Amino acid sequence: MKYKKLFLAIVLFIFLGISYYFGATSKYELSEEFSDFPVPINAKLVQKNEYNSIYEWSKSSDVNGIPFSYSLIIRTNGWKRVVREGTLSIYEKSGVQINLSSQRDEIIIGNKK
Predict the structure, then answer these.
(1) Which of 16, 38, 34 is closest to 25 using CA atoms?
(2) I need a surface site. Which of 34, 47, 65, 94 has the fewest CB within 10 A?
(3) Distance (Å, rounded) from C-alpha 74 to C-alpha 24?
């Protein structure tokens, strides 16, 4: 009986984890402009230049940074955070570096030059 409850708890935990991951995956798309770096689907592009793009996104914060689901999607797409200084994080994948800065209600994504 004890093992049955433990087994059910493990199965439930795995199911919830998989559901969370696929729910989070559907909220982000890979940007060709930034070497397939994930960008939130509901983020509104406000400004763009040759170096970066600024998106209005209500889930971003200068104090708390980006949501855990966004961090998870970035990591599962092969990006590794190499530097974090204040609101700026630099991610790297296959020799390509991307800057991600989280401000209050906006994120800035740019190529590391």
Answers:
(1) 38
(2) 94
(3) 11
Per the listing, tokens 């961090």 go with 71
pTM here is 0.78
Q: Which residue has the tokens 């397939």?
A: 36
**Host domain of residue 56:** 2-111
Query: What's the pLDDT tens digit per position in 17-43?
Result: 777 666 666 788 999 889 999 999 999
Q: Using an 8 Å Cβ cutoff, are 107 and 100 in contact? A: yes
Question: What is the C-alpha to C-alpha distance for residues 90 and 84, in angstroms, rounded to an integer?
Answer: 6
Burial of 80 (0-12, 13-18, 19+ CB in 10 A): exposed
H or E element, residue 73: helix 68-76
Which residues touch 80 (CB under 8 Å, ≥6 apart)? 91, 92, 93
3-state secondary structure of 112: coil
For residue 79, which phi and psi values (nearest 5 degrees)?
-85, 135
Q: How far apart are CA 69 and CA 56, in angstroms?
A: 18
